[in-house]
Write a structure and sequence with these properties.
single chain, mainly alpha, Growth Hormone, Chain: A, 17 helices, 84% helix, 0% strand
């Protein structure tokens, strides 16, 4: 007869195995490997570009403007991207967007390595990649759930987030050292090369051909997605929380180069450490999401995570040392990941397959597109107030959002139960 200890160990082992279950599916395993390596390059470029702008201009406002230019297209064209993800083969859309991303990174590398780079070029190329991402992000989110059965969606989303945030640790750490030794251009070049890997993995997949066209016109197709989001309480509440986070809670990310350069006096190497700390916290959160076998109770987890996200920002704003900033960013990364990946998991698990691309385009618009305005506000706040005050204000607003979302949870749960929106395999597995 098994002892309680034996049972506990077996359950723990089963949960750890569940976290990796999506990798048993060949197409997802290829996607996971390709994205993981390519994302390291993406995060290298993120740090190198931020430091390049700060080195060229020394302006917090232009840091915010660069973020604005890279994300504004998502706000403008995100719904169109969701429409394409629901009507065109997502596999082909992914190959096209990854190829365009390769070309953008290559152009940035050539201009920087030849000494021709200017802030105007950076802003122009940031706008270009923003347009590409307006299509890529909703397609990629929806494509992940095409690669696994519905019962394995939490594992797939958690593992995808784990790859993203493992890269968030590796990429900035390596980039911080490379920027100091060989300059930003090498980081851009390595990112361009990394896209070859993900394109190769996409081409190696065996994807069933699907017919996604609709008889309704594009405007009607988009309106259907908007009606679903507005009239479905859990979708409306989740997107509202993410909107608040995008407007007010992401200021810390835009202003990290200012923390590293002007407040902590640690330079690009310190910036790499700060970004890696955020990534480590987020990786821990992603692995926790991947281990979930049910989505029940995830709403409460999201509310707690949003509160932790806000508290971490307030601590970061008060910090003047690297060693206090690191644990603050660990908390920020963990809270941010649980908040965003948790809402992602709930939205995809509860959305009809025919609407999933449009739902995820709305998620991309509010989680990334609305960050454009937040980045601009962060740059202005740091310029006319101060960087710590701007980040602390974002943290306080985030705490308020957490409390309001928690109060709304009982009504959301009742709506999901009454309309039988929760798939049985995600409620009982």
């Amino acid at each position: 007869m098994p002892t309680p200890v034996d049972v506990k160990q077996a359950v723990g082992s089963d949960r750890r195995g569940w976290a990796w279950r999506a990798l048993a599916h060949r197409n997802f395993a290829l996607f996971f490997a390709g994205q993981g390596l390519s994302l390291c390059g993406t995060w290298m470029q993120s740090l190198a570009q931020a430091w390049l702008v700060y080195r060229l201009t020394g302006s917090p406002f232009l840091l915010g403007l660069t973020e604005f230019m890279s994300r504004a297209p998502i706000l403008l064209f995100g719904l169109l991207g969701g429409l394409l993800a629901d009507r065109w083969p997502r596999h082909r859309v992914m190959i096209a967007t990854q190829t365009l991303s390769l070309l953008q990174a290559a152009a940035l590398a050539v201009l920087t390595l030849t000494g021709q780079i200017t802030i105007e070029w950076v802003l122009g190329l940031a706008t270009f990649i923003g347009i590409v991402n307006a299509v890529d992000i909703p397609a990629r989110h929806a494509f992940v759930t095409d690669l696994v059965p519905r019962s394995v969606i939490p594992s797939a989303i958690g593992l995808n987030s784990s790859a993203f945030n493992a890269a968030r640790i590796i990429g900035p750490t390596v980039a911080g050292m490379l920027v100091v030794t060989v300059g930003e251009g090498v980081c851009f070049l390595l990112n361009a090369l990394s896209f070859l890997i993900v394109i190769g993995c996409l081409l190696a997949m065996r994807v069933e051909k699907t017919h996604r066209t609709s008889e309704s016109g594009a405007a009607r197709f988009l309106a259907e997605g908007l009606r679903y989001a507005w009239h479905t309480p859990h979708v409306r509440a989740l997107l509202t929380v993410v909107t608040v986070l995008s407007f007010f809670a992401m200021a810390y990310s835009t202003l990290l180069p200012v923390f590293a350069g002007a407040i902590l006096k640690t330079g690009p190497h310190g910036l790499g450490i700060l970004m890696a700390a955020t990534g480590l916290g987020a990786l821990i959160g992603a692995l926790q999401i991947a281990q979930r076998r049910r989505v029940q109770g995830l709403g409460t987890t999201i509310a707690i995570a949003v509160a932790l996200f806000g508290a971490g920002q307030i601590v970061l704003a008060a910090s003047s040392t690297l060693w206090l900033s690191i644990p603050a960013l660990l908390a920020i990364g963990y809270g941010m990941l649980i908040s965003l990946a948790g809402t992602n998991t709930l939205l995809q698990s509860l959305a009809p397959e025919t609407l999933r691309g449009r739902v995820m385009s709305l998620y991309a618009m509010v989680s990334l597109g609305f960050t454009t305005v937040g980045s601009l506000l962060a740059g202005l706040g740091a310029t006319y107030l101060s960087t710590p005050i701007t980040v602390a204000a974002g943290g306080l607003i985030t705490l308020i959002a957490s409390a309001l979302f928690y109060r709304a949870l009982p009504g959301i749960r009742q709506h999901i139960r009454e309309h039988h929106l929760l798939p049985e395999e995600l409620a009982t597995s």
